Amino acid sequence: MAVPVVDPSLNPSSVETDAVVADPPRRARRRPARADLLAIGAYVLLGVLVCLNYWGDVEQRVSSHLPTDHSWFEWLFAHGAYSVQHLENPLFTTRQNAPDGVNMMANTSLLGVTLPLAPLTLLLGPQVMYALYLGAALSATAATSYWVLSRHLVRSRAAAFAGGAFLGFAPGIVHHANGQPNFVSNFLLPLIAARVLRLGEAGRWRRNGLALGLLVAYQVFINEEMLLLTALACLVVVVAYTVQRPRAARERAGSFLAALGLGGGLALLLTAYPIWFQFNGPQSYRGLQGGVFHNWGEDLVAFVTFARDTIAGDEAVEKTIGLTEQNTWFGWPLVLVALGALVLLVRRSVPARILAVLVVVFTIASIGPVVRFNGVETDVDGPWAYIPDDLPLVEMMMPTRLSLVVVAAVGVLLALAWDALAGAGRPPVPAPRAAADDSTDGDGDGTAARDTRRRVLRLAGYAAIVAALVPLIPRPLPAEHIDPPPRFITAGGWRPYVPEGRTLVPVPIPSNVHGLHTLRWSALTGHEFPIPGGYFIGPNERGEGVFGAPNRPTSTLIYSTMDANVVPEITEENRRQAVDDLRFWRASVVVLGSGPREAVLRDLMAELLGPPQRVDDVWLWDVRGRV
């Protein structure tokens, strides 16, 4: 929390750094902006590279890794645009899961992005907006990381660039770019962390507190889980610094606590109602049924394995140990370089010692309730085995995601290591000329030899870092084709059939397993008609969170028919239940488009509702007179 100005004539690697976040020397601040522009330009190119496969046919391609998540986020961009266009409460919607609706604060809603970008979504459409934003979020995270590193922690722009590139495009981050842009939208987190670590500045507690409160409040509407991980990491950093520098911590405690109280109060004031709505509003829930995420820990072998989406990755490996998310997957060269950097820096650098604490604490915490090794559950208990899975917040957490803090620590460590190497190569303070002339007795040769060894070691250090990072360069994300919605949907042929207050029931009804293409009908028409079912988390009859709407008899019958590809024997009870379900959904029309199960679904619905009409390119059952 101390903010000293480092003497630019000193080699930072040769002195004990007494700051977690330090202001750069003025000479560094006066460097040309060209280096900053080049860094940002490189990050933008990487963002374009990652999303390259989407741009070949941006309107008909989705992530082949998480296609349903991809479609959900397209739906979210459409939700933000619809809320702004119709001036509706963005915290809740009935355009999905009609008539009950969806609590958007209780789901991953990305409102902090979709609302301000609503005009662009209305102009470009949610598919284009999704691909644009995904690459931009990755690049922006790298850019803000670079800014914080270059302005507050390291002198070398190259060091900041390497650290920023890793923080924005680490394998664990790029993995989440497969359909989960909320986990790559981390551009505020470096700013939050830097602000927390500067709360102890004397005379600036009001400014720092207000800035922190605004940043935290905004992050709530982007990704609460990443905000929680950042808060836990900052807590560990502050405790580790206090243990190492108790006197400095005591001197700054007053300003720190005052700024923290002001920031926390402001953030709470700005987010009080949305957070209340999240836990108490309609369609809110308490925990997830069965603690579904509690057992997802990081496999120990994953730390030294190359991720699938890197140039050194192998898709076959993830079938062995990739049973959960690929949040670390550093590859063995980076693990060796990181360990070597910690060994060399930890004795003389407070930031390095704090990073070592972060790596140890969050690596252990990410293991989960059982230690996994190369895809096999061992008999060794992990730390989560001793934590009740029904604790508030804990029940919602996925242990493996705690390793994302390790990712951040490694990124900062790379910047520190590169900066230490750069510092070793800076020219020393010139000696008086007379003293230099007296060095002709052979000491000059010794000095030259030492300089040569230093240059060789420095180049070897650079080469090691580069060699560890090159295999982690991301490849374009895998994408697959998805059929466009029927012309009946996109051209508005449905309008005469769906009056205000009624729903269009697509077949299959969207869920977290079935109906990916029918969920997109809603997104790509700008939510102009409400639909039942959907892909979200909502309450079951006990108030626990479950994925998707509780199945009704008709939706269950549709899904089982799709799985078996055979129409079962239909009874009068099935027909009665179908009418009851359509009445519950407030249906006015049932629509079946083309798809791999079109024939069997048409036969099923004909058995339930009678012969369909062929309207444009869909099969249609007008049920307004029956429900």
UniProtKB/TrEMBL annotation:
Endpoints of the signal sequence: none
Superkingdom of this protein's organism: Bacteria
Residue ranges that the Swiss-Prot or TrEMBL entry lists as coiled coil: none
The UniProt record lists the keyword Signal: no
Keyword Plastid among record annotations: no
Pfam families per record: DUF6311
Residue spans crossing the bilayer: 37-56, 130-149, 227-244, 256-276, 329-347, 354-373, 402-421, 459-477
Region (Disordered): 427-449
Domain DUF6311, chain residue ranges per copy: 78-377
Annotated keywords: Membrane, Transmembrane, Transmembrane helix
InterPro entries, sorted: DUF6311 (IPR046278)
Name of the protein in its database record: DUF6311 domain-containing protein
Organism of origin: Micromonospora chalcea
